[in-house]
Amino acid sequence: MRVAFKLAYIGWNYFGMQRQKGMRTIQEEVENALMKSGVIKSRTFEGIKYAGRTDRGVNAIGQVISFDIDCEKEYLCRPRVLNSCLPRDIQFLAYSRVNDSFDPRRDAVKRYYRQMVHKELNLDRTSEAIKRLIGSHDFTNFTNRGSRDESNIRNVEKICIRNFGSYAAIDFVADSFTWNMVRRLSSAILKISNGEKDLGWLDKMLSLEEKEGIQPLPPYGLILMDIKYDGIEFEVDRYSLNRFLDTLNRIYEDYLMRGSAINEMRSFVSRELNGSVETSDDANDIWNL
């Protein structure tokens, strides 16, 4: 029988999804866990299929994998059982039985990514850009040159921007995406928001009249949110969901502490550079301890 899982991970500590010799990857950790739990017999088991290969540093809350198991081992194929063999930053969240022909990559009908941006975006400037990006286009200018896809034509169904004060989120929904496409499109939207580029430039990039490489945004701000399939329902494991939420909360608190320390150092150095009397006294007091 064939089973499928929703997989979540924080990609910052891994060299991407795909197995690489001598590197710590999501695929290696997942397959090691399946072997330790007795679901598969070897790390080289080739029957495991993934919906997509996220780059180094990219995160996921809705990656999908599938594989075949013996019926008598189905009791092992539950998120909470497999998660006991996984690092806390990689966790199975949901499970489904699927038909024997199911392929998580080929059978996907929609993919949903969310790109986080470190500042608010100018919605007046970006609204028209979004309209132009929606639909079927050749996204060659927004694709890594090393891509092996036969075609870079993709159909973007939806792009939505939301501002949250000090940062923004850009949501993308499409049938599929080319390599680095979401991060490069997000970079283009950011450039238009900042006034660095205009709509004429975007039109030329989409028509391929302009052949300009565009630097993608950093991978750690990208999240694979979900992948949709026709006729497949996943059963969410609430225990595993709570376990992963606990991990996320711990990491969030850790980075808040780190951020507050860096921000305090920035403020101190900035005040000292401004040469204020108060800051200068503050600096002397600290440096003369």
Rounded to an integer in angstroms, the radius of gyration calculated over CA atoms is: 22 Å
The structural class is alpha+beta
Helix percent reads 25-40%
Secondary-structure element order, as H and E? EHEEHEEHEEEHHEEHH
Contiguous helical run count:
7
> Main β-sheet, in a few words?
10 strands, mixed
3D shape: globular
Question: Please, how many domains?
Answer: 3
Task: Supply the CATH class of the largest domain.
Answer: Alpha Beta
Low-confidence runs (pLDDT<50, min 5 residues)?
Answer: none
Mean pLDDT: 91
Number of strands: 10
Enzyme class: isomerase
Binding site for substrate: 113
Function: Formation of pseudouridine at positions 38, 39 and 40 in the anticodon stem and loop of transfer RNAs.
GO molecular function, one term: RNA binding
Structure description:
Formation of pseudouridine at positions 38, 39 and 40 in the anticodon stem and loop of transfer RNAs. Keywords: Isomerase, tRNA processing. It catalyses: uridine(38/39/40) in tRNA = pseudouridine(38/39/40) in tRNA. This protein is of the alpha+beta class and 289 residues long. It has three domains: 2-107, Alpha-Beta Plaits, CATH 3.30.70.580; 110-225, 2-Layer Sandwich (Alpha-Beta Plaits); 250-287. The protein is 34% helix and 24% strand. It has helices spanning 26-36, 79-83, 123-133, 181-194, 199-207, 238-274, 277-287; strands at 2-9, 49-50, 59-68, 90-98, 110-117, 135-138, 153-163, 168-174, 222-228, 235-236. Helix 3 (123-133) packs antiparallel against helix 4 (181-194) and helix 3 runs parallel beside helix 5 (199-207). 30% of the residues are buried. The mean pLDDT is 91.
